[in-house]
């Protein structure tokens, strides 16, 4: 399974971006998908997650009210709509998919997409 992110770029504070994460195939046993980010010189941190069942979402406090995570099952794609971007949102954004198939857990990551927000 490959996860491919797209949609990153250089924007100004207050602008919006939509990130996409496309899975190369249907992921059997998938439980949760999410977005994580790694700011320069810092550790990777959770941005938002969405479950595959009822679609429950969870957000980091720093992005609540500004970012929205969603999935399109038919397209095997997850999105992150980012509004009112701030310079502190600058980071490499990673897509994640995790779950369990039979007795084996899996944890897939994309290669990351750079988001840079200028002040």
Number of strands: 11
Q: Helices and strands: which structural class?
A: mainly beta
Mean pLDDT: 96
Tally of DSSP helical segments: 0
DSSP strand content = over 45%
The outline comes out as: elongated
Please trace the helix and strand order, writing H or E for each element. Answer: EEEEEEEEEEE
Uncertain residue ranges: none
Q: What's the N-to-C terminus distance?
A: 37 Å
Helix percentage: under 10%
Q: What does the largest sheet look like?
A: 7 strands, mixed
Report Rg: 14 Å
Q: What do you see in this structure?
A:
The chain has 119 residues and is mostly beta strands. The chain is built from no helices and eleven strands. The chain has strands spanning 3-6, 9-12, 17-23, 30-38, 45-51, 57-59, 67-72, 77-82, 91-101, 104-109, 113-118.
Task: Provide a concise account of the structure shown.
The protein is mainly β. A hairpin with a 5-residue loop joins strand 5 and strand 6.
List keywords for this structure.
0% helix; elongated; four-stranded antiparallel beta sheet; mainly beta
Task: Provide the fold topology.
Elements: E1 3-6, E2 9-12, E3 17-23, E4 30-38, E5 45-51, E6 57-59, E7 67-72, E8 77-82, E9 91-101, E10 104-109, E11 113-118
Parallel strand pairs: 2-11
Antiparallel strand pairs: 1-3, 3-8, 4-5, 4-9, 5-6, 7-8, 9-10, 9-11
């Amino acid at each position: 399974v490959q996860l491919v992110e797209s949609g990153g770029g250089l924007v100004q504070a207050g602008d919006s971006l939509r990130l996409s994460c496309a899975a190369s195939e249907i992921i059997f046993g998938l439980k949760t998908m999410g977005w994580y980010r790694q700011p320069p010189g810092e550790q990777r941190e959770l941005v938002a997650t969405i479950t595959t069942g009822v679609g429950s979402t969870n957000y980091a406090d720093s992005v609540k009210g500004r970012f929205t995570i969603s999935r399109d099952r038919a397209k095997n794609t997850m999105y992150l709509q980012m509004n009112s971007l701030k310079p502190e949102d600058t980071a490499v954004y990673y897509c994640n998919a995790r779950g369990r198939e039979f007795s084996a857990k899996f944890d897939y990551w994309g290669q990351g997409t750079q988001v840079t927000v200028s002040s």
